[in-house]
Amino acid sequence: MSVVYAEPQRVFDVRVSLPNGATVADAIARSGIREQRPDIEIRDDRLGIFARKALPATELRDGDRIEIYRPLRIDPKEARRLRARKT
């Protein structure tokens, strides 16, 4: 399994080994991201597994990629409106 947090300039990508029954929260704790990147706000509504929303209590399967998402800079609907105005 791996825990990933991506920024435009760098990526945090750590492989972790966990027992059966481990959760997303267990993987995040084992990854050490909170110690290495205390500036990252890890929230329950910004977690996923392979681009699908997940909760901290979600049980993991072998090979899962736990993703920690950054906050959106702009609402996707507003971004589409701005692009439409430019054309």
| N-to-C order of helices and strands | EEHHEEEH
Low-confidence stretches: none
Which shape, going by the Cα principal axes?
Answer: elongated
Q: What does the main sheet amount to?
A: 5 strands, mixed
Task: Tell me what you see in this structure.
With 87 residues, the protein is α+β, with helices and mostly antiparallel strands. The chain has a single domain, classed as Beta-grasp domain (Ubiquitin-like (UB roll), Roll), CATH 3.10.20.30. The chain is 26% helix and 22% strand. The protein has 3 helices and 5 strands, in the order ββααβββα. It has helices at residues 24-31, 33-36, 76-86; strands spanning 2-6, 11-15, 47-49, 52-53, 65-68. It has a 5-stranded mixed sheet with strand order 2-1-5-3-4, with helices on one face. A hairpin with a 4-residue loop joins β1 and β2 (11-15). The chain is elongated and about 50 Å long.
